[in-house]
Amino acid sequence: MFEKIKEILVEEMQVDPENVTMEAELVNDLGVNSLELADLILLCEEKFDIEINDEDIHKFITVADVVVYLENLSK
C-alpha cells in the first residue's frame, strides 16, 4: 500500500520520491496543501474503489496515516 500511495504522491502531486517515507508529514514535509490533500483523497477513492469518510481526512498527517487507514478499509 505504501508504494501505491508513494506513486500517487510522486506522479500526481510532483512530490520528490526521496522525500516520501512513512514518517513524512503530508503538509510540513511534502508540501501538500489542502487542495492537493483533497485531490489525494479523490485519487485514492478512485484507485482503490473505496469511500473515505470526510470526518477522517483530518487524521491524515503522515504518509503512514494514509497507508494504515487504507489498509484497514480494505480488510
Describe the structure.
With 75 residues, the chain is mainly alpha-helical. It has a single domain, classed as Orthogonal Bundle (Non-ribosomal Peptide Synthetase Peptidyl Carrier Protein, Chain A), CATH 1.10.1200.10. Helix content is 51%, strand content 0%. It contains 3 helices and no strands. Helix 1 packs across helix 2. The mean pLDDT is 94.
Q: How many strand units?
A: 0
Count up the domains: 1
| Structural class by secondary-structure content | mainly alpha
Largest sheet: none
Number of helices: 3
CATH architecture: Orthogonal Bundle
| Binned strand content | under 5%
CATH superfamily: ACP-like
Low-confidence segments, ≥5 residues, pLDDT <50?
A: none
What is the percent of helical residues?
Answer: 40-55%
Q: Characterize the overall form.
A: globular
Rounded average pLDDT: 94
- Helices and strands, in order, run as HHH
- CATH class value: Mainly Alpha
What keyword list fits this structure?
single chain, 75 residues, mainly alpha, Non-ribosomal Peptide Synthetase Peptidyl Carrier Protein, Chain A, 3 helices, 51% helix
Compact overview of the structure:
By secondary structure, this protein is mostly helical. The protein has a single domain (2-73), classed as Non-ribosomal Peptide Synthetase Peptidyl Carrier Protein, Chain A (Orthogonal Bundle), CATH 1.10.1200. Helices cover 51% and strands 0% of the residues.
